[in-house]
Amino acid sequence: MNTSEKSASISVRSDITAQLVRHSAQDSDVAFAARVSTLGDRSLDDVNSDAERSKGLINFLMRDRHGTPFEHNSMTFFISAPIFVFREFHRHRVGFSYNEESGRYRELEPVFYMPNEERNLVQEGRPGRYHFSPGTDDQHTVTRTALERSYVTAYEAYREMLDAGVAREVARSALPVGLYSSMYATCNARALMHFLSLRTTHAESTVPTFPQREIEMVAEAMEAQWAELMPLTHAAFNSNGRVAP
Ligand SMILES: Cc1cc2nc3c(=O)[nH]c(=O)nc-3n(C[C@H](O)[C@H](O)[C@H](O)COP(=O)(O)OP(=O)(O)OC[C@H]3O[C@@H](n4cnc5c(N)ncnc54)[C@H](O)[C@@H]3O)c2cc1C
After folding, report:
1. Most Cβ neighbours (<10 Å): which of 82, 89, 93, 226?
2. 11 with 5: CB under 8 angstroms?
């Protein structure tokens, strides 16, 4: 279920989106920043240069973790996800700037997260080494029914308080972490690689991680758009074990 579905008084969604809305990011940004080290002002020739001839340099910088040349670029994403994803996202403090919609200054929309049929429901194993299995039809039905009931009740409580004149900032206490929020997140490639190293599982990762699927969905969408902008940097990230430089 990828589109909105109307219930009595709420909508549910299963999609989580990250849309690149603005950027100044290309592989040659890495090259000119690195070359000032040895060329000084002659590195100006590398601004907007053909990045293909810097492929080896980019790979060397990634491999040896010379990270700062990967910071001279910028990408702004508009992200639409449940609050529990933002709770995890905002732990990434370095190289990210955030602005999120306010629950104090606007009335929050009744849009909630509903895991779709592909979302594995059953957690097995121990902390840090969980694996997930699909779950039975019954477990999917229980999840759907219980979440929807809880969302409807929570939003009714929120509305009841607003209708009685209670401030939005007080009434929002009734709302669960499955409520959708939206934010802009601006980052550079180095910060994004650190985020991806922790929030995606990938065959080429040399350091394992076990992210929650929903933040991984955001990370995958961001990665796909970044890879289009900086294909050489992205390839070097993969071939060096997806460790941020
Ligand atoms: C699978 C997974 C499970 C997690 N589970 C939990 C959990 O149960 N509970 C919980 O609280 N968090 C949890 N987290 C969040 C985690 O602890 C980090 O807060 C989050 O991954 C951000 O990582 P970071 O601090 O490296 O990123 P950033 O905040 O972006 O920092 C980037 C890098 O800057 C450096 N740095 C930043 N701040 C400091 C500092 N103050 N001192 C020294 N160096 C600094 C570090 O090298 C750091 O790696 C989990 C994360 C993952 C990926």
Report:
1. 226
2. yes
